[in-house]
Amino acid sequence: MNTRTLILTLSFLSLLLSQSNPILPGQRTAIRTLATSAGFSPQELEERIQQDYGLKLDALSQIQGAELIRSFQSGSISKVPLAVIDDAARQKTSKQDLVPILEKGMVKRFHFKDGTVREGEIITVSDGMVTLKTTSGRFTIPEHEFLAETADIKNKNGETFTGVVMGETSEEFIIRTKYGDAIVQKKDINKMKRYHGGVLDQQTENTRKFYKGSDDLTNIFLDPTAFPLSANTFYVSGFSIGYGLTERFMMTTRFGSNFSGDLNLHAKMRFYHKKAANRETAAAWGLGMHRAYSPADIVGKYSHAINLTNNDNGTVIALNDMENIKTNELVPDKTDDQLHALAYIVFSSRRANPSGRGKVGWTAGARTTTAFINKKSIIKPEISIGENTYQVAWNDDAQYKVPFRIWLGLEYDLRKNLKFLSTAWIDNGFKTVEFGNVIEDYIGDDGSAPFSIDYPGGKPSLIDFDFGIQYAVNESFRFGVHFQQPYIDFYWEFFEF
Predict the structure, then answer these.
(1) Based on the domain organization, do 454 and 343 belong to the same domain?
(2) 87 shares a domain with 186
(3) Is 412 a member of any domain?
């Protein structure tokens, strides 16, 4: 129901229900809304009511309230609405000519005629005096010392909002327009102009502070967060493509595996979500299924857990330390591709940075796979390399009983379009690999499937970490650089695909 319909309904009911009772709360709200649309400040409204009725607004009867509403609706009581004042006029308007709307419960940053700024909550408004509660204490300030704060906002959908700023949080603005109060999410704002006392604020403060970075990360490097894609959003990365089906459920597929005949789907569902003004937390589970996962990929990923014993001298060497050997050479010729599954659970939290510059967040998760089921059947018991023959066997160390990865990630907004990212992990399948080898592995020059990372070489590192930066070129495209494989990331979103 819009404001005009509400006002008409209240007016009709007020006439039917009473001829002499005190003014209804709904009538008071309607009068204040109409008065604001007509350009009246709260003080000017009270003065006009005192002039016409000899009473304050709260002392009017229902009949008098209905009459006042009709007067505003008919235009018999009017001023030039604030919303129709153009930019040039605002620049010329004296600070003393615009009186702000001040109401109990308003929470925002208030500007004053003496140039000071205070952030707090209005506790009371009475007899031209305002009690303002801040972190520094309570202050009683005359209404006429406050500067009116107005704004012109255009969101990403092309909608425009012009009116008085009634409140502000870290995530939204409350704008009182001539048609009613609008709640505008900061993340949806495209352009905005703010005025204090009719004077344009150049927003020097907003260039220093920002609500959050341009990206809500679904992954930190290769590790998922608990935040899924937005609904109806499509993305492409260097390894996968995905789609947000709802606000809590998304699906992805690793296209490199698909090109190799391994059709796969990965689901992520957020099962817990709590969002407040300054903090957001979420938990999600993930499940991936591969129809025909290559045993050679398992051998490549866990090459450091496969030992080769020389039949001549008994020397034992890990597969990752062998040169010029391809993983498919260790897989029996008749071994079929396998059904492969992975599962994870992840928890994420992010909050407003106390400095006012964006947000900071962390993620913790754990993952396992079915890679080690029937693992002995996917390698040859013996292999010849040159003139030497080797016995092939899996390492019996306890750390290779079950494939696992446990990670902790950090994201920090350096600028609106720049993030610092870091992650640490315990992973029995991780190896450090040089950049050149990663590139060869990714494009398939090492004989493995392209668009994947399964290089058999490298140095095993059970406990390790990585960090880097990610830059948002625009709302759709971002790329990152860091110091562990795959070294370079890119991510392309198509909103409302």
Answers:
(1) yes
(2) yes
(3) yes
3-state secondary structure the chain: CCHHHHHHHHHHHHHHHCCCCECCHHHHHHHHHHHHHCCCCHHHHHHHHHHHHCCCHHHCEHHHHHHHHHHHHHCCCCCCCHHHCCHHHHHHCCHHHCCCCCCCCCEEEEEECCCCEEEEEEEEEECCEEEEEECCEEEEEEHHHECCEEEEEEECCCCEEEEEEEEECCCEEEEEECCEEEEEEHHHEEEEEEEECCEEECCCCCCCCECCCCCCCCEECCEECCCCCCCCCEEEECCEEEEECCCCEEEEEEHHHHHCCCCEEEEEEEEEEEECCCEEEEEEEEEEEEEEECHHHHHHHCHHHEEEEECCCCCEEEHHHCCCCCHHHCCCCCCCCEEEEEEEEEEEEEEECCCCECEEEEEEEEEEECCCCCHHHHCCCEEEECCEEEEEEECCCHHHCCCEEEEEEEEEEEECCEEEEEEEEEECCCEECCHHHHHHHHHCCCCCCCCCCCCCCCEECCEEEEEEEEEECCCCEEEEEECCCCCEEEEEEECCC
**What is d(CA 380, CA 11) in angstroms, rounded to the nearest whole number?**
87
**For residue range 409-432, what is the model confidence (pLDDT) as tens digits?**
999 999 888 999 999 999 999 999
Residues in CB range of 77: below 8 A, 6 or more apart = 38, 48, 68, 71
Mean pLDDT throughout 87-104?
Answer: 54
Domain match, 52 and 129 both: no
Tally of domains in the chain: 3
Query: How many percent of the chain have pLDDT more than 90?
Result: 39
Same domain, 437 and 369: yes
User: Looking at the domain assignment, is residue 252 inside a domain?
Assistant: yes
For residues 90 and 11, state if they share a domain.
no
Examine the fold and report which residue of 52, 74, 96 is the final residue of a domain before the chain moves on.
74
Q: Is residue 214 part of a domain?
A: no
Q: Which of 21-35, 163-177, 467-481 has the highest mean pLDDT?
A: 467-481
The verdict on 363 and 439 lying in the same domain is yes
44 located within any domain:
yes
Q: Please identify, among 53, 74, 95, the residue that sits at the C-terminal boundary of a domain.
A: 74
Residue 100 has what pLDDT? 74
Q: What is the pLDDT of residues 299-325, one digit of tens each?
A: 999 999 999 999 988 899 999 998 878
**What does the block give as tokens for 277?**
């003004």
Same domain membership, residue 191 and residue 279: no
**Domain span at 419:** 219-494
Q: Are 282 and 322 within one domain?
A: yes
